Each structure stands twice: as structure tokens, then as C-alpha cells.
Amino acid sequence: MKWQMLNNINNIIFIPEIFLALFSFISLIFGLYVKKNAFRQTSNFAVIILFFTIILVYLDNYSNFADYENLFENSSFISFFKILVLLGSISTIIITKDYFLAIKLKNFEIPILFLFSTLGMMLMISSNNLMSMYLAIELQSLSLYVAAAIKRDSVTSAESGVKYFILGALSSGILLYGCSLIYGFTGSMNFNEINFYLLNYENLNMGLIFGLVFVMVGLAFKVSAVPFHMWTPDVYEGAPNSVTAFFAIVPKIAGVALIYRFCLVPFQNFYLDWSQIVFFLSIASMFLGAIAAIAQTNIKRLLAYSSIGHIGYILIALIAANDNAVKAASIYMFAYMVMNIGIFAIILSIKVKNEFLINIYELKGLSKSNPIVSLSISIIMLSMAGIPPFIGFFGKFYVFIAALQQELYLLSILGVLASVISAFYYLRIIKIMYFDDNTEIINIYFKISYQAKIILFISLFIIIFFIFYPSFLINISSNLIL
């Protein structure tokens, strides 16, 4: 009995989420008692914690350390997206560390907020119950509300935090009401039990339709799908650049994984009911992201609308809902993560007139003063536009392949058209760097830490050379099971 208890304790500790939660609290105590360079040391400790969590997620995919009691699920799809979230968090902490120090924002709580937010995202991805899904979303969101307003002496940061909190609370209320309707009409909160209950019905009743719509609205807010995107440009602009990097890279991965699981597990037999909602979200997101970004000169607002557009493309694969849909989503989100890590690593390292980069026109003449940096930005922009041979092209290619296999010709044509429109503002940045001349001498400095330089190099390497060995990611994504 004693050995069995010890074995159970070991199993519980090795559950990735419990391990991350336990060491997140330990890192909080660690930050309190470190006397010197608390922020830097806590950030390094957070990176180590996340690295070991990746190892546990990988092992957990094969061994299932504990019984999840129907609250959570484990699968290859879930493990893949958890690893993406953890890799995104590690990269973000590394590339943002020097930026926080440069703006004298040395609160050691910042990496801990990122840890708790990452924990919430991991729970979101593996949730198999409406209540655990809601609580995981709130854990992730509460950490991000604080992170958005962390720069207390900045009016714009405080404003972004308040906007995000108010709109986030509204969306959470709508999502919770939707969950209560689904529970009320099915008698269960478990995804598999809801699916089993609905097998007896050919059509959803009005109450379940409303529940489905409300939950989809709440999830659409979390991934910034139009028309629930209104918070994104303002929060991206107002929050410190480093927090914006985390917003842009990590929560989107978890949100997309949860939307896929919610639609394809409990409501998989009612494709027509939720696909109409996703169809509208996809088209609206693609075109608003493409058109609204054209007028933007603030680099963070431009990337906000870019992320909205990317969500539109990823939802195309969900509408396809075939064997290639999960593969396309996995490849696209990997490409999205790599591209955003690369561009934010550069943005967080460029100073113009001793201020960090804000306006895209401040990049005038960068090709002359920093040819390697301008080339790196150009490669990432071309990849984001979906131009071959870069990794962004493969993301869109597999999404459209999945759609065409389901004969979604109109959606595919609209997706290609939106992609052509969005190419304008990506190419405009390249044009500014290479063809616009400075009318005044502007000192542009590029200073990047050794660790961030490694992350940037890896991102660029994957973006450029993915074409030579795509089978590695394609084989992994082809075998993912929800």
C-alpha cells in the first residue's frame, strides 16, 4: 500500500499541468527571495520549467501518468498543440527579457504571469468538459489582463488592460451562458457524453443552437475572429511590445486547438449547425484583416490585423472538417508561431532615435544601414504573405487543399483573394526598407541578446529551409488524432 501511494504521488507530480502549476508557485517564492536581478533570474527559471514541461508532455502522450476523470483528455493532437504553446512561451520569454529591462520594467512577476497563462492554455487544449474548459480560459485570461496593464506608469498600457478586461469579462459571461444552455439541454458537461446524447437527434433544438452559438462567440473572442476582434488592435498597441509578442504568439495556438476540439468532438454530427458560424467568421476575419491593415502605420496594429487575417485562414480548414483539416491546422499554426517569433524578435531589438520601433516608416533606409536585419524582415514578411518557397506558403497550401477536397470552391477563392490583398501591406514594409530614402539622418540601432539571436536564427532557418524537409512536420501532423 505504501509503495502504491508513492507511485501515485510520483504519477501526479509528473502530470505536465500539475508540474507546471507546482513550479509556477515555486518560481513566485524564488522571485521573492532573490535579492539581485530577480526579473532576469526568474525569467531563466521559467524557461527551465517550461523546457521540462515539454519533456513531460512528450512522455505523457505515450504513458498517461494519471486518470483525468473525464475532465481532461489526452491525444496526439492535444500533445502537439501543448508543445507548440510551450515552445511559444519559451521563445517569448527569451526574446522579451532584454526589452523589459530596457524599459525598466523589472517586475519578477511578469514571467510568472506568463507561466500561469501557459498553464491555463494547456488546460484549455486538453479540456474535455465545459466547466474545466471555462475555468482554464479564465486562468489564461486573468493572467493576460494583468500582463496587458503591467506598465503602471503608462496610460496606454492601463487603457489596454481595462479594455481587454471589460470585453473579456463580457465574452466569458456569454460563453458561460452558452455552457449552461448546453448542460441544461443535454444533462452533461463532458464532451463525449454530449456527443453520445446528441446521437439520438437529427436536428438540434433551439436551446442547443443558442448554446452552441454563445460558446462559439466566446471562443471567437479568444482568437480575435471578426466581429469579436475589437479588442485586438487597441490591446496590441497599448500593451508593452513584449506583452504584445506573447499575445500574438501563444494564446492563438491554444484558442485554435480548443475551437477545433469543441466543434469536432461534442458537435461532430451537427456540422451544418456550426459550420455556418465558422464560415462567416472565416470570411469576415480574412477580409477585415487584409483590408484594415492597409491603413495601419503602427507596426503593432498592423500585426494585430495580420493575426486576425491568419485566424480566418485557419478556420477554413475547420470548415473542411476532413482528414486533412487537422493536418492543415497543425502545419499552419506551427508556421504562424515561427513567423511571429521571428518578427517580434526583430521588433523588440530595433531602436529608432533611442525609442523602440513604433511606425513602419521609421524603417526607411534600413537596407543600407542594416542589410542583414532588413533581409530577415523581408523573408518573414514574404512568408506571412504566403509566397513560396517559405513556410507560410505551405500553411496556406494545406489549408486550401483541405478545403478543395470538400469542394469548398467559393471559400478557397475568397481565401486566395484575401491573401492577395494582404500581400500589399507585407510587401509595403519591404518597399519602405529598400526603396524609400530618408530625408533626415535617423540613427537605427539593432541590439539583440545572444539567446534571442539564437531564437531568431532558428526561426529564419525553419522559414527558409522548411521546403527541403517538409515531410518531418507533415508526417507528424498527418498522424494527429483529436
What would the keywords be for this entry?
482 residues; mainly alpha; three-stranded antiparallel β-sheet; 2% strand; disordered N terminus
N-to-C CA distance:
36 Å
Poorly predicted runs are 1-7
The main pleated sheet reads as: 3 strands, antiparallel
How confident is the prediction overall: mean pLDDT?
86
Provide a descriptive summary of the structure in words.
The chain is 75% helix and 2% strand. It is built from 20 helices and three strands. The chain has a domain of 177 residues. The N terminus is likely disordered. It is mainly alpha-helical and 482 residues long. The protein is globular, with a radius of gyration of 22 Å. Helix 3 packs antiparallel against helix 4 and helix 5 packs parallel to helix 11. The chain has a three-stranded antiparallel beta sheet with strand order 2-1-3, with no helix packed on it. The longest helix is centred in the middle third of the chain and has 32 residues. Strand 1 and strand 2 form a beta hairpin.
Quick structural gist:
With 482 residues, this protein is mainly alpha-helical. The protein has helices at residues 2-13, 16-33, 38-63, 76-102, 109-126, 130-148, 155-186, 191-198, 206-222, 231-238, 241-264, 271-292, 299-320, 323-347, 366-369, 371-384, 391-405, 409-435, 450-465, 471-478; strands at 350-352, 355-356, 444-446.
Write the layout of secondary structure elements.
Blueprint: H1 2-13, H2 16-33, H3 38-63, H4 76-102, H5 109-126, H6 130-148, H7 155-186, H8 191-198, H9 206-222, H10 231-238, H11 241-264, H12 271-292, H13 299-320, H14 323-347, E1 350-352, E2 355-356, H15 366-369, H16 371-384, H17 391-405, H18 409-435, E3 444-446, H19 450-465, H20 471-478
Antiparallel strand pairs: 1-2, 1-3
Helix pairs in contact: 2-3, 2-5, 3-4, 3-5, 4-5, 4-11, 4-14, 4-19, 5-6, 5-11, 6-7, 6-11, 7-9, 7-10, 9-11, 9-12, 10-11, 10-13, 11-13, 11-14, 12-13, 12-18, 13-14, 13-17, 13-18, 14-16, 14-17, 14-19, 14-20, 16-18
